[in-house]
Amino acid sequence: MAINLQKGQTINLRKNEKGDDAYDLSQVTIGLGWDVRKSGGFFGKLFGSAPEYDLDAIAFLLDKNGKVANMGKTLQRQNGKNIVLYESDVIYFNSMRHPSGNIWLTGDNRTGEGDGDDEQIIVQLDKLPLRYEKIVFVVSIYQGNTNRQHFGMIENAFIRAVDARGKEITKFSLSGDASMNGMCSMVFAEAYRHDGDWKFRALGEPHRTDNFIDVLVPYSYK
Predict the structure, then answer these.
(1) Is 159 exposed, middle or buried (0-12, 13-18, 19+ CB in 10 A)?
(2) How many CA atoms lie within 13 A of 176 on its CB side?
(3) What is the helix (H) or strand (E) element at residue 146, kind and residue range?
(4) SS (H, E, C) 84-117
(5) Global confidence as pTM
(6) What sign has the CA pseudo-torsion 112, 58, 5, 162?
(7) Dihedral of the CA atoms 91, 93, 94, 100 (nearest 10)?
(8) pLDDT beneath 50, residues of the chain
(9) 52-81: per-residue pLDDT in tens?
């Protein structure tokens, strides 16, 4: 049975607390999920429809200094808009697979409807190059400030880690409350190397910005 973490708690990802075989970290799924709180008005109750929220999962790969070393390159699209951080140590919707091939992002769910993970980041922890000491997992609400959408409107948000055999290792749940009002990004958790293994820490650090680039700044070399 998976360990349910509280904010600030840490576990060893490989060690199975039940005494069974160690968890297989050759391919770990970091699953993120959420539900959008339904409107309390008459029509919200009548139709039960949830507005479209575009929550994006992002991963920062950090070096021994706790920084993103490779900021990738900028590509120019035919429409004139640039794609930044392409093939960098930041995994996000415009650069979904890391150059190492050991970490990648899957699809995009814009409503949070249905059970299970809404977005997934797959990481082969046992193969990840040693220069990467930590992975930080972030979720941002795309255009949250413009659309007046924030984590106070989100219910049953969670991040979980599942090993290569499909066994859930740990889960950290975070429900929106008044303290999350106006917060459009969340540093959910981090995985980091420790004594030759990997640990996982629940963070739950909210930010007002809806742009993950702002969250990235403290992890960047100046």
Answers:
(1) buried
(2) 21
(3) helix 144-147
(4) EEECCCEEECCECECCCCCEEECCCCCCCCCCCC
(5) 0.90
(6) positive
(7) 30
(8) 41-47, 110-114
(9) 788 899 999 999 999 999 999 999 888 888
